[in-house]
Design brief:
630 residues; 18 strands; alpha+beta
Length: 630
């Protein structure tokens, strides 16, 4: 098979001080690690925090003064009109209107410190080569906790003890309150990288910001790299992950080779496409309600230094859809024959039939959109220029993409850029897609980027942790975060539904190949089918116009539509379906069979009870009545 493996190494890069004996090397590494950690902590505590808090308070004062003198701050999407219609107290109204200064003063520096600490710890554990031994102890600790659950009577439902604020989601995990909580948060190490067999074995709490940069040091990567660094492998397996390479490589689950799972009995088993294949297939999307993930073995592929990215502008919705669909469909034939190891380097010559490795669409309005096509590149070609998006002072990527759209339309020719591969993978991280414009409205200004852009993005977890419950309830009524997976053939109608119910832009348009199967989510027929992830993140147009907006009613209409076209709602997002409606959207056949056979129905919560949290269930009860939600 023709591959880029000659550009990737078949062994790990040398570890620091590798020539020294372990008894000498480990104390040196430990001393260096804690010295760096203390230095970094001092820098943030005595340098960054005083500056950011001072600027944050000054920002809040100037914002308040401008509002008093000139009226509404143009950067705010939630103004006094919206607040006056709510039951938010006066003190909390002040917190809402001054959310940006608080984020700048405290959340950003603390988030950045936490992220840098995570990278340092990963490097330290790898240099010490201690992760495999630690993993065995962690698995044993989980088994002991399962035994404690049985000895206590086994009446409570089992969940992880990971606090809700750590989830990359707007959910708070309130269902865990009366459950038996098992500690798994220390399972955050890369256990083994087998370059010759092209697999990596990791614990569930390893995130994309850890794993992908580690692989890239030796010229390797994952077939699909979800774009937010905080997303964990466990989250991608228990839920799902999709990216601009999914039109040929499918969802995150498709390149999983093997899973290590703790069952309700406390037994730890492995499963794959050949060993316990029903458990392997049913575990994906199950949200930890069949068993608990201990580790996962993932396929890796060689990568190149750059991504050659083309920006194709469109000023009618139909022309956008036609081009996007034509390019995305090229990936289906590779998905059909690739299994967990799709090879885009074979039988994919340059020319009109060439399947691009990356396809992504952004819709900025009904009459304005851009389709971006990307491929690996070893060097910067003469047809484009280098764009280093990871530089802290660069604009948010969606803003940059819109500028490239306008430039291409103005010049009447294609715009081509070469992005460092890591910059491309995390192009939406700094702006959390486009949510940062709601969190820090002035965050994309030149002054802010140059002074504080290096601290972006804020941790989603820390944002949740610093938001009082009453404020979160208010935000929930004015905000939408949704990903809906629908057949690509319905894209025109789906865009219309999103426009009617959400009236918000940009929209993310990402293709994926969906394979047939028996799990909770699969193509309904007997062949690979092209789907599209429509992502809506932000504030509906009605809210920006200070109009009444029924979030629950609008989302239920979208969910009803998605079910009608045999699509799926991503499980991380808020769901307002009844139990019966949820079963109509997702295929529970194999899922219910596995839970009953493996004892999961007696040990773990049902997936519906984890996805539709108690606060959402109460909203459904008020709207539909008790009988409808049973």
């Amino acid at each position: 098979m023709v591959r880029r493996e000659e550009q990737a190494t078949a062994q790990a890069p040398p570890q620091p001080l590798a020539v020294l004996p372990a008894l000498v090397r480990r104390p040196i590494l430990t001393f260096a690690y804690y010295t760096k950690l203390c230095g970094m902590a001092s820098f943030f505590l005595f340098g960054v925090l005083p500056v950011s808090s001072s600027v944050g308070m000054a920002y809040g004062f100037i914002s308040l003064l401008r509002t008093k003198v000139f009226g509404k701050d143009p950067g705010r999407y939630i103004d006094e009109i919206n607040l006056s219609k709510s039951d938010v107290s006066y003190l909390q109204q002040i917190l809402v209107l001054n959310r940006s200064p608080m984020v700048l003063a405290f959340v950003l520096p603390i988030s950045r410190f936490y992220q840098m600490y995570g990278h340092m710890r990963t490097a330290f554990v790898q240099a010490m080569e201690s992760a495999p031994a630690l993993h065995a102890k962690r698995v044993q600790h989980v088994r002991e906790q399962f035994r404690e659950w049985r000895e206590a009577g086994g009446n409570q439902r089992i969940v992880t003890a990971r606090p809700g604020w750590k989830r990359v989601s707007n959910k708070n995990s309130s269902y865990k309150k009366n459950c038996f909580q098992i500690q798994v948060d220390r399972m955050m190490d890369i256990l083994e990288i087998d370059y010759r067999n092209r697999v990596v074995r990791v614990e569930p709490m390893v995130n994309m910001g850890q794993l992908v940069p580690t692989l890239m040091k030796s010229g390797w990567t994952l077939p699909v790299v979800p774009e937010l660094e905080e997303l964990t492998v466990g989250g991608m397996i228990a839920g799902t992950g999709v990216e601009s390479s999914s039109h040929h490589s499918g969802l995150f689950q498709e390149f999983c080779v093997e899973l290590e799972v703790a069952l309700a009995s406390g037994e730890v088993v492995t499963c794959s496409r050949t060993e316990r294949p029903d458990l392997f297939e049913g575990f994906f999307w199950s949200y930890g309600t069949i068993g608990m993930l201990m580790s996962a073995k993932l396929r890796i592929i060689p990568c190149s230094r750059y991504i050659r990215l083309e920006y194709h502008p469109f000023h009618t919705e139909q022309s956008f859809v036609n081009f996007w669909r034509a390019e995305s469909t090229k990936g289906v034939k590779f998905a059909e024959k690739g299994g967990d190891d799709v090879n885009l380097d074979e039988d994919n010559p340059a020319g009109p039939s060439h399947c691009p490795r990356f396809v992504e669409g952004l819709v900025f309005s009904k009459d304005k959109g851009v389709v971006m096509l990307g491929d690996f590149a070893d060097r910067i070609g003469e047809d484009g220029v280098l764009y280093e998006h990871a530089k802290w002072y660069k604009k948010y990527f969606y803003r940059h993409a819109e500028e490239m759209l306008d430039r291409a339309a103005r010049q009447g020719k294609l715009v081509v850029e070469y992005l460092p591969t890591r910059d491309y993978y995390y192009r939406h991280s700094r702006s959390v897609f486009w949510e940062m414009e709601n969190i820090v409205p002035l965050g994309d200004s030149a002054l802010f980027r140059w002074c504080f852009g290096w601290m972006l993005p804020p941790s989603v977890g820390f944002l949740k942790l610093t938001t009082p419950a009453q404020l979160q309830k208010f935000y929930d009524s004015k905000h939408v975060i949704q990903d809906m997976l629908v057949p690509a053939e319905t894209l025109e109608r789906s865009l219309e539904v999103f426009r009617q119910e959400f009236d918000m832009y940009p929209l993310w348009v990402c293709p994926m190949s969906m394979r047939p199967g028996r799990g909770l989510v699969h193509a309904r027929g007997n062949k690979v089918e092209l789907f599209v992830d429509l992502g809506a993140y932000g504030v509906p147009g009605a809210v920006k116009r200070a109009e009444d907006y029924d979030v629950v009613g609008r989302l239920r209409k979208v969910e009803e539509y998605v079910t009608s076209v045999k699509g799926f709602e991503m499980l991380y997002a808020d769901s307002f379906m009844t139990r019966r409606e949820f079963a109509q959207m997702f295929d529970r056949g194999l899922y219910d069979e596995l839970r009953k056979r493996l004892g999961g129905d007696k040990a773990f919560p049902d997936i519906y009870d984890k996805i539709v949290e108690p606060r959402r269930l109460e909203q459904l009860r008020e709207r539909l009545g008790e009988e409808a939600i049973r």
